[in-house]
């Protein structure tokens, strides 16, 4: 018993030294990771630049088309050309032509471009909200993998101490060589599992660097962020219409309605006015020219009506996509809420039942082993089961935090944050 106590004391001292964080270590909190991701995100910057570029084009869409300057010769004689290129009716003409879009097309085109710019800005806002959620998921995956790997290190260390304890027992005649092999087997299995978790931790860090390129130079805090209770699911569901990502479909519907309005206006003829001056040789009078041209929609049922019908169908498609996206958001909200609630119940069950039972079993077997009533293999298995229970609890806490981050993704619709 004294030997076991000494070994356990040495183990705890080594573990305390091993897991103690460095005094000058930089810690990357979840909020800091989100701030860095938003400040240095090329995809978000690209979307915002796209929105500004479209908005810049709106005034041009509402302006008149560029006028045209025409230069030419009229009434050139076909006979004896080019030896005798000039006759009394031959004229040098310069004219100015301007086209005027019919009806309200200029305003509608500008409105359509502004609606497209609003849609692009909504995409940027939705991407900003999605990035915050995805950063939280990547950060939590990295946190779970890192501390799961550290927990397995503890099991590897304890298995090494158990090997020494078993070898001492064999030397003193109180143990068997089978106990040494059992401890070595446990150490090898725990080492393999730790290596697997270390690979998962590296992968999780790599995914976090997708959003925060310098995440590798930071450590992660020992505790998860403190999350407050989320709003009621009914309140979140009512606010889904205002979700930033859903606004993209709202703005897409605005673009489709603008296309319908332009298609209706297509039946109004565009007008072109041309004013010109024609100069003639000799003492003959120069000429003035004024012309006006109109488009004639003679085949409306085969052109303009078909175009309008097409735009009406596309607007209906936009409405259906908007309704489908709202269903998708509601399903994601319900799933996140259910995962958060069930994970909370499981964590309480682990705290009340699973972990106390695993610790109690290990303590009982340690006491029995000290009095010669339990084998080392039983103690090793009980210790392994306690570590597995702690790993499960770690995964549950990380999973509940991810579910809470998933719920927070919908809280922006209510103007609320963590």
Keywords:
8% strand; alpha+beta; four-stranded antiparallel β-sheet
Write the layout of secondary structure elements.
Elements: H1 2-19, H2 30-39, H3 42-61, E1 68-74, E2 91-100, H4 105-172, H5 177-211, H6 233-238, H7 244-265, E3 271-279, E4 287-294, H8 304-370, H9 376-411
Helix pairs in contact: 1-4, 2-4, 3-4, 4-5, 4-7, 4-9, 5-9, 7-8, 8-9
| Structural class by SSE content | alpha+beta
- Give the % helix: 55-70%
In N-to-C order, the SSE pattern is HHHEEHHHHEEHH
Q: List low-pLDDT spans.
A: 1-24
Estimate the strand proportion: 5-15%
**Kindly, what is the distance between the CA atoms of the first and last residues, rounded to a whole number of angstroms?**
50 Å
Rg (C-alpha, Å): 38 Å
Number of strands: 4
Mean pLDDT: 84
Structural shape: elongated
| Total of DSSP H or I helical runs spanning 4+ residues | 9
User: Could you describe the largest sheet, including whether it forms a barrel?
Assistant: 4 strands, antiparallel
> For the largest beta sheet, what order do the strands appear in spatially?
1-2-3-4
In terms of quaternary structure, the protein is single chain
Describe the model:
The protein has 418 residues and is α+β, with helices and mostly antiparallel strands. The protein has 9 helices and 4 strands. The protein has helices at residues 2-19, 30-39, 42-61, 105-172, 177-211, 233-238, 244-265, 304-370, 376-411, and strands spanning 68-74, 91-100, 271-279, 287-294. The protein has a 4-stranded antiparallel sheet with strand order 1-2-3-4, with no helix packed on it. β3 and β4 form a beta hairpin.
